[in-house]
Design brief:
With 226 residues, the chain is an alpha+beta fold. It contains five helices and nine strands, in the order αααααβββββββββ. Helix content is 27%, strand content 23%. The longest helix is centred in the N-terminal third of the chain and has 28 residues.
Amino acid sequence: MKSNLFISLAFLLVVTACRVETPPAAPPSPLAAPTAAAPAFRTEIPVVTTRTDRVAPTLAPITQTTLAPTETLSPTTAPTQTAQPTLAPTNIPPTLATGFTATPQLAPAVYVTQIKITPPQPKNKPAEFFLTVSFLNTVGENVNYPRWRVLLFPKGQNNSIGDPEGLSKTIAPGVSTQDTKPWSIRVTSACENFVAQPIWQGEDGSRKILFQPDGKPLTLEFQICP
């Protein structure tokens, strides 16, 4: 009996010893966190701020310089506007396009184109002068003027004081020059102005003006001094 009791007690002691809980582990020391977080102070923060300063100025010029030329260029519009003036030459008459200007054809007649006096500054009588008249004959053959002449008027008056006749009575076709007979005019104490006008005289004594090709009379103003 005693031996069985001893065995039972020994068994209870063993079981009791196994059930004893192991003590909990000690909590971490509150000073551990600061020691682990100490490396959190980084030296990259100043570097990041300098990078943002460098990036900002490089973005704005790129977007502005590339967009402006693409909006203003219009290469297809310019050729269509410059091509329009090519239509103008098609409306120009052939005579103008070749540089030739047609002159109106004159009616068949005898015209005068110029008159001059020799000497250019005639002197007082008895000094003499004569006049040279340029003719244009579009009749196509000789034209005879038995009494073509140049009337001489004091300037501002209608009554002639002289009428030197032409030396030749025949006006040849085309352009020709004819001289008058010599003439002289006396003035008193001062220079006087006169007007010369070529005419031709009919058989009945009527005076007919010789006109220029534009239909206007031909006159020449000159002066005689004492």
